[in-house]
Recover the amino acids of this structure.
């Protein structure tokens, strides 16, 4: 089972470039989300989606866009990369459907390590 | 505001018990979680406890919750080298998927 797949695993960008981080899950999960992980700060929620066609902002949404055209895919777009966006990005999914603890992120991808020069 | 705090580092000898501690500030949290992150990987949900419980045991893992002191702990019995990882506690609130607050993580080093 693939679970949550993130691509690419590593990326180096120049300031001002744009790119899309891909996330796909094969578990038919309703809920998907993007987090960034920075040293000493835990994980912070960027954007999330509770189903196809529905997205919402998390704690740190500025500089990022998302879309959810299918249940399986939840890409994260950096519009104009800045050094402050250097981080490790994680995509997560959960069954959702307001089933208590199953709302919360349960399956994580292995992350995309992004450096902005 | 919401804040979840953990110590940064814990070192134990193989075979000993590990206790990882976490304090949180929001008393309205519904679930509290422990996640494990191995090097180069994403987070793995280890266990969780509902806020009206005091204790939950799952094989070598014991979760203790002290709501009065807003203190959560994870005890790992008979710690193995494969338990070396970063452990995150997190809290969430009923019905609010987006309201998950993670701690900063505790790096557990197991010495053979």
């Amino acid at each position: 089972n693939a679970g949550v797949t993130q691509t690419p695993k590593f990326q180096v960008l120049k300031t001002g470039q744009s790119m899309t981080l891909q996330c796909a899950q094969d578990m038919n999960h309703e809920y998907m989300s993007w987090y960034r992980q920075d040293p000493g700060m835990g994980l912070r929620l960027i954007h999330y989606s509770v189903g196809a066609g529905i997205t919402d902002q998390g704690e740190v949404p500025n500089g990022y866009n998302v879309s959810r055209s299918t249940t399986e895919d939840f890409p994260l777009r950096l519009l104009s990369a800045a050094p402050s966006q250097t981080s490790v990005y994680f995509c997560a999914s959960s069954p959702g459907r307001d089933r208590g603890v199953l709302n919360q992120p349960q399956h994580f991808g292995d992350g995309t390590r992004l450096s902005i020069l | 505001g919401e804040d979840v705090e953990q110590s940064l580092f814990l070192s134990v000898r193989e075979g000993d018990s590990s206790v990882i501690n976490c304090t949180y500030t929001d008393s309205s949290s519904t679930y509290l979680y422990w996640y494990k992150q191995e090097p180069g990987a994403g987070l793995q949900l280890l266990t969780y406890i509902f806020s009206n419980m005091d204790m939950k045991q799952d094989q070598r893992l014991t979760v203790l919750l002290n709501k009065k002191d807003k203190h959560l702990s994870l005890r790992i019995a008979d710690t193995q080298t494969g338990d070396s990882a970063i452990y995150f506690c997190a809290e969430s609130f009923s019905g609010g998927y987006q309201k998950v607050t993670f701690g900063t993580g505790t790096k557990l080093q197991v010495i053979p």
In short: Chain B touches chain A through 26 residues (CB under 8 Å). The radius of gyration of chain B is 13 Å. The CA atoms of residues 27 and 70 of chain B lie 7 Å apart. The first strand of chain B starts at residue 4 and ends at 6.
